[in-house]
Write a structure and sequence with these properties.
Rossmann fold; alpha/beta; six-stranded mixed β-sheet; 9 helices; elongated
């Protein structure tokens, strides 16, 4: 894995100044697969308007696309010095009914937000996403100052072209993996890929109502009487046979009593008689038989 200056020199860092424009993706194919099973899905793109992206998703999914350029609004707040108003702006930015969007493309938007703004945006996106819907987001793994936003152009389901455009300078916020997993309330991480480009692709899915209900239900335990003795979890075979000896049932082929299909031996309850050995008479001479004699 190439990181830092080495990755930038080799053209593998999408945020480097001289980075190669081509970026490989593994999560985009899974994102489109989630939406392809839906009829006429609705897609929300939070990046700038990109013509090839609209063409790609329109041909692949036959979906209706809404583009909300959040980067432009963030740049305006940064230039005016009113960054503290961003959480309130994001909380009321999407005037859409709840559970009305099938898929959301966040790109690297969360890298330009602090914790308060990221939480406000995550709540709104989780609200408008349909159950079973998909959300794709990119997260940087290193912190560095940047004066440009990222624009990703879809070539196919495995390749993206990266392009930067000028924006107000802000620090990139790096979220640890555990915070990424807990970012969206009601969404689960379906797939996560750490690429060589120092970028983490994360695909989220919104839980279905049945899954949420099954997860919230607790196992039902029947109350046990106060004087009842707990049953042992395990017991040896001999102990089980002795306890069940009083209620043997003829379950063997020949009609003999058996426990759980195992026949008891005839002399299992008593010891076999031992035949005493004959004593040798040491004073009696040994007789030998000669061949041919009677």
């Amino acid at each position: 894995m190439l990181r830092g200056p080495t990755a930038a020199r080799n053209g593998n860092d999408p945020w480097a100044a001289r980075a190669a424009p081509q970026v490989q993706t593994q999560a985009l194919k899974r994102f489109t697969a989630c939406l392809s099973v839906r009829e006429a899905p609705v897609l929300l793109d939070l990046g700038p308007v990109v013509g090839p992206n609209v063409t790609f998703f329109g041909e692949q999914l036959g979906c209706k696309i809404f583009v909300e350029d959040i980067h432009e609004a963030l740049d305006r707040f940064a230039r005016n010095g009113t960054w503290d108003d961003v959480p309130r702006f994001l909380a009321g930015r999407f005037n859409r009914p709840s559970e009305s969007i099938d898929g959301i493309l966040c790109w690297d938007l969360f890298d330009h937000l602090d914790k308060r703004a990221a939480d406000a945006l995550a709540r709104e996106l989780a609200r408008i996403l349909k159950p079973g819907g998909a959300l794709l987001a990119f997260f940087a793994t290193t912190r560095e100052a940047t004066s440009a936003y990222s624009k990703f152009i879809v070539v196919d389901d495995k390749t993206l072209y990266h392009k930067s455009y000028t924006a107000a300078a802000r620090d990139r916020h790096v979220l640890p993996s555990r915070e990424i997993d807990r970012l969206f309330d009601g969404l689960n991480v379906s797939h996560s890929f750490l690429l060589r480009t120092r970028m983490r692709e994360t695909l989220f899915r919104k839980r279905l109502p049945l899954e949420a209900t099954a997860k919230a239900e607790a196992p039902v335990r029947r109350p046990r009487a106060a004087n009842a003795r707990p049953r042992p979890a395990t017991a040896s075979l001999n102990l089980a046979v002795n306890r069940a000896s009083a209620r043997l049932r003829p379950t063997s082929s020949n009609g003999t009593p058996a426990v759980n299909g195992v026949e008891r031996r005839r002399h299992a309850g008593r010891s076999l008689p031992v035949k005493p050995k004959a004593k040798k008479d040491s004073l009696r001479p040994r007789q030998t038989k000669v061949r041919g004699s009677r």
